[in-house]
Prior knowledge:
alpha+beta; 8 strands; disordered N terminus
Amino acid sequence: METDVYSSLPSTSIKTFMVASRIAVQDDPLSTDGTASEAMSTDGTASEAIAGMRRGCYNFNAGRHKHPERAACENARPRNGKMKRRVLWQPKQMLYREDCRRSMCAMKVFVPDYYPGFRCIAGACRHSCCAGWEIDVDPVMLKRYRNMDGPLGAKLRRCIDPDPEPHFLFSDQERCPFLTDQNLCEIILQAGEDALCQVCADHPRFRNYWSDRVEMGLGMACEEAARLILTSSHPFHLIPVSEETEEQSEVPSAEELSLRNYRDHLLASVPETGPAARLREYLIYRHLADALYDGRVEERTRLVDRAFERITAGWDGQSVSDLIEKARVFSNEVEYDDEKLEQLLNEP
């Protein structure tokens, strides 16, 4: 592997960059794109991306959270030795919002340029997210399931346990009761994708919330998402896909813009090439934005390096399929487990 130019970046260098970036954005406080604006695409992929998005709790036309700081809290809990993901929505306090001002601009949504190409491979998936993962049912769909007619409605009501949160009752083989022998979803087959609960409709997507924008991505716990990311032929690139017209965005503070500029600086400084570069870009994009909520910029910079080293350990640098599998396992075991992620953050 090539030498990492910032794995040993001292804390003073990080702070110097953040301070310099803040001074730069203060000259133009109404700029909301920072250095990321240079990477924004204006091609015709927006409509394709919107069409490819599936209904979730965060719907682009309805049910939007009323505050941009609202983020997904992903808690994993064990079940027969496997980690389960629960998705709960709760507000998080952003640290860099003290001097934010209201803007007349709509909230924008950005995604990596590979995002519109994601499609669930359903029965062809070797590691189904419908097995071994706890699936909670959100209140909106719970109400719909309780009023659904026919055999499917009866089975839905029979297979939902209301305690402690409404969730599907899994079989002894740790499979969703609606996962067929062909690894297809019975709910989709009989009622369509619109009948999926929030967790199923959203997975493997994640969201990073800024004052003026929402950035969405794909988690590598999904093997198809990992394949799409690691086989991308060009560097990481964000594209706009939608504008939120239901409420106004806020103008980010200088500190928030400096964090985003620092994130973009790391993305532009990736020393690796090929799949290894795509892996590091993914880790930067997924984890640096969480410093908005805890201010741990240095720890999250080191987290990227530790995660990269852990995933690539033992990799021969040649087999992309091996790297995809290693990334999938890491994401499944660490990125969806708050306790393990915190341990990795706290490593000296």
